[in-house]
C-alpha cells in the first residue's frame, strides 16, 4: 500500500473511533440530564411549603422547557457528529477497495467496501441513540405543555392524552428533521456538506 494511503487509512480509523466515542459520550450526557431533572423537580416539591407548591407547575414548565432546549442543542451536536463519522468511514472503505483490487490472490474479503452509504441508516446504533434522545426531548416538551395547562384544564384525562400527543409530535419532528438533514447532507462530498464549498 502507498505510504500516503497507509497513513490516511490509519488516521481515518482513528477518526471513526473518535466520533463514535463522541457520539456515545453526548448520548450519555442527555441520559444523565434527563434523569437528573425529574429528581430535581421531585425534591423541589417535597421540600416546598404550601405557598411554593402552588407555584410548582410554573417551576416544572420553566425547567422542562429549559431542559428540552438543552437536549435539543446537544442533539444538534450529536447529529453533526454522525455526519462527521460517515466520511472517514467511507474513506476507509475506499482505500480498502482500492488496495484489494491490486491483490490478485485474495478474493474472500469480509469487510466493508461501500463508499456511498448515507449518514442516516435505520439499522444503525447511532440511529437508535438519536431516536432515544428525540424521545427525551419530546417528554420534556410534553411536560412543559402539561405544566402550562394543568391549572386551566378541567379534564385531566384529556390533558394526559394531549400531552402524549405533544410528546409524540415533538419527538417525531426532531427525529424526522435530523434524518432528513443527514440523508440530504451525506449525499455530497464533505467539502460541500461540511465546508459549504461549491461543487465544480
State the share of residues found in helices, binned by percent: over 70%
Count of domain modules: 1
In whole angstroms, how far apart are the ends? 30 Å
Kindly provide the radius of gyration, computed on alpha-carbon positions and rounded to a whole number of angstroms.
Answer: 23 Å
Report mean pLDDT, rounded to a whole number.
Answer: 91
Strand count, sense and barrel status of the largest sheet are: none
What percent of residues are in strands?
under 5%
The total of helices stands at 6
Give the assembly state of these chains.
single chain
Structural class by sheet pairing and helices: mainly alpha
Compressed to H and E, one letter per element, the order equals: HHHHHH
User: Stretches where pLDDT falls below 50 for ≥5 residues?
Assistant: none
Task: State the total count of DSSP E strands.
Answer: 0
Shape: elongated
Keywords: Membrane, Plasmid, Transmembrane, Transmembrane helix
Amino acid at each position: 500500500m502507498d505510504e500516503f494511503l497507509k497513513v490516511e487509512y490509519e488516521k481515518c480509523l482513528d477518526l471513526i473511533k473518535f466520533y463514535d466515542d463522541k457520539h456515545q459520550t453526548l448520548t450519555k450526557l442527555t441520559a444523565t440530564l434527563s434523569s437528573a431533572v425529574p429528581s430535581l423537580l421531585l425534591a423541589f416539591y417535597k421540600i416546598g411549603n404550601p405557598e411554593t407548591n402552588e407555584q410548582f407547575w410554573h417551576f416544572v414548565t420553566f425547567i422542562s422547557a429549559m431542559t428540552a432546549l438543552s437536549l435539543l442543542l446537544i442533539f444538534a451536536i450529536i447529529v453533526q457528529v454522525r455526519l462527521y463519522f460517515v466520511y472517514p468511514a467511507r474513506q476507509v472503505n475506499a482505500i480498502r477497495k482500492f488496495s484489494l483490487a491490486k491483490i490478485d490472490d485474495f478474493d474472500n474479503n469480509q469487510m466493508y467496501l461501500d463508499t456511498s452509504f448515507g449518514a442516516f441508516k435505520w439499522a444503525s446504533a447511532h440511529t437508535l441513540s438519536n431516536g432515544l434522545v428525540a424521545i427525551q426531548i419530546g417528554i420534556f416538551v410534553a411536560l412543559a405543555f402539561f405544566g402550562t395547562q394543568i391549572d386551566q384544564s378541567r379534564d385531566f384525562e384529556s390533558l394526559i392524552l394531549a400531552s402524549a400527543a405533544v410528546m409524540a409530535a415533538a419527538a417525531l419532528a426532531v427525529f424526522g428533521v435530523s434524518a432528513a438533514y443527514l440523508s440530504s447532507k451525506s449525499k455530497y462530498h464533505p467539502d460541500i456538506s461540511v465546508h459549504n464549498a461549491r461543487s465544480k
